[in-house]
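Q: Hi! New to this. If I give you a protein sequence and the SMILES for magnesium ion, can you show me the bound structure?
A: Yes, paste them in.
Q: Okay, here:
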Amino acid sequence: MFDLDGTLVDSNAIDSQCYLQALVDVFGFDLNKIDRNWGNYPHITDAGILHTLCQTELGRDPTLGELYAYQQRFLELLIIAVSQKPLQSIAGASEILESLNADPHYAIAIATGAWKQTALFKLQQVGLDRIFIPMACSDDARARVDIMHCAYDRTLEFYRRSQFQTVTYIGDGVWDGIASKQLNYHFIGIGTGERVVDLFAVGAKCVLPNYQNLAEIMPVIFG
Ligand SMILES: [Mg+2]
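A: Thanks. Here is the predicted structure of the protein with magnesium ion bound:
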């Protein structure tokens, strides 16, 4: 089970920038007042952060109309940003998905904190939409563990199974490791630099910079 931003697509910077700009454009929030330390939010997902900000700034949840306008603006901004600086996948992402997809011992899924429409756009931009992968996203739930649960259920249905022997979540965020621990999933970190220590600290079995050298990393990830 893969996270998306920073795990399959190198999109964290552009995604945060467009996410925040859409908040300013639709809700009129003051960028300087927004806490960008996502670790301070109870749910580090697009839906979770929006909910917290609306509660803090407006004292209420967003209306359906605001949510729709917000998601549309976010997508528009992403389209503009990507037209200026194309997105890249994390190196080897396509190869590992294809390899797992071709192996009957594995089922693959995406559990992302992104909205469905921006998630699909990002996957499509880097050509990772060629394989159909069961997915759950921020449209399904605010909490990452609930999104992961939902992805698990969709994957059971898609592969016509009643259970899986083990589940491994692959993600680049500290919150991905914490959610994996809560669900008793194995956790593999994707990251470099200081992030490596943080990912090990939340239980990563290993931390990889990307998915290059598949033959070497497959036994490390799934061994
Ligand atoms: Mg991520």
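A: The chain is about 50% helix and 5% strand. Let me know if you'd like me to explain how to read the tokens.
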